[in-house]
Design brief:
The chain is an alpha/beta fold. It has helices at about 10-20, 25-30, 35-50, 65-90, 105-120, 140, 175-180, 200-210, 225-235, 245-250, 280-295; strands at about 55, 60-65, 95-100, 125-130, 145-150, 155-170, 190-195, 220, 240, 255, 265-275. Belongs to the LysR transcriptional regulatory family.
């Protein structure tokens, strides 16, 4: 790493503030500095990058093309720096800390409703939960473990089986009554809801029921199961959903199974822990708790 290219966070703050106000004086007021100090910090950043970041237009300054390209990354870096410090301060007040990555809908609908039981038993753990839809580099994001759907393969990490997944065709009570379906072959004329990351899911279900798959593809598409659940509840169509994500809706009758024809999906859920964290007792404790929360299917 070339340290001469590592920017001063103070200079980045001055750049972001001046860009937002399009005025060095107002930026100085917000930062409780003099205008000359703000100008000097931005000049230092320009010298370090070799870029001219601002153009003067009448009584204000506007970003140059180089400044416009740099600003989004500076904002992201400042935001991540702030989060880092807030997390460090929060963790410093606790004995232990844990950073967990989870799939968005899994986290919202399965993990979070159960998380209170872990926190009640381990009040000395400061936990951070963030959503991740795809595998990532543990070295860069510094998570202690992740919940992953797919195959038990993750570079530099160990995957432990958590649970299988079973999907079931469901619809809102109103839509189910309106469709009045008696057999699976009648689904060919019903509106279907699809997950963009699993475009063949309905086709696989149709194939399992020995139905023609050409009718399995039309319908609205969404990129998260959470949106499909909301769409199904709103009566927009029939959804093929993992049963663990709709436990409450099935119990309350908000969503009804159209047929008792569940289908196990090809992949499974795993708890993934980086190899370097295998001796982390808090991460291991959380993994054991996750495994204990799974109901055998």
């Amino acid at each position: 790493m070339r340290r001469r290219l590592i920017p001063d966070i103070v200079n980045l703050q001055a750049f972001e503030c001046a860009a937002r106000h399009q005025n060095f004086s107002r930026a100085a007021e917000e930062l409780n500095l003099t205008q000359s100090a703000v100008s000097r910090q931005i000049s230092d950043l320009e010298q370090q990058t070799g870029l001219k970041l601002f153009e003067r237009v009448r009584q204000r300054v506007v970003l140059s093309e180089a400044g416009l390209r740099l600003l989004p990354e500076v904002k992201d870096l400042l935001l991540r720096s702030e989060r880092l410090m807030i997390g460090a301060v929060a963790a410093g007040q606790m004995k232990l800390s844990l950073k967990v990555a989870t799939l968005p809908t899994f986290g919202t609908r399965w993990l979070v409703p159960r998380l209170g039981r872990f926190l009640d038993e381990h009040r000395d753990v400061a936990i951070t939960v963030e959503s991740r839809s795809k595998p990532f580099n543990f070295e860069e994001d510094n998570f202690d473990l992740a919940i992953h759907y797919g195959l038990p393969a993750w570079a530099g990490a160990v995957a432990t089986f958590l649970c299988n997944e079973t999907v079931l065709p469901v619809a809102s009570r109103e839509l189910a009554g309106r469709l009045g379906l008696i057999s699976p072959d009648e689904l060919s004329g019903a509106p279907l809801l699809h997950l963009t990351t699993r475009p063949k899911l309905w086709a696989q279900w149709f194939d399992l029921q020995e139905l023609p798959t050409e009718n399995a593809y039309p319908g609205a598409r969404f990129d998260q199961f959470s949106m499909i659940i909301a769409a199904a509840i709103a009566g927009l169509g029939v959804a093929l959903l993992p049963t663990y994500l709709i436990e409450d809706e099935l119990k309350a009758g908000t969503l009804l199974p159209l047929f008792n024809l569940p289908m196990p999906t090809e992949n499974s859920y795993y708890v993934v822990m980086p190899e370097k964290k295998q001796t982390n007792e808090t991460a291991t404790l959380f993994q054991d708790w996750l495994l204990s929360e799974v109901t055998p299917q």
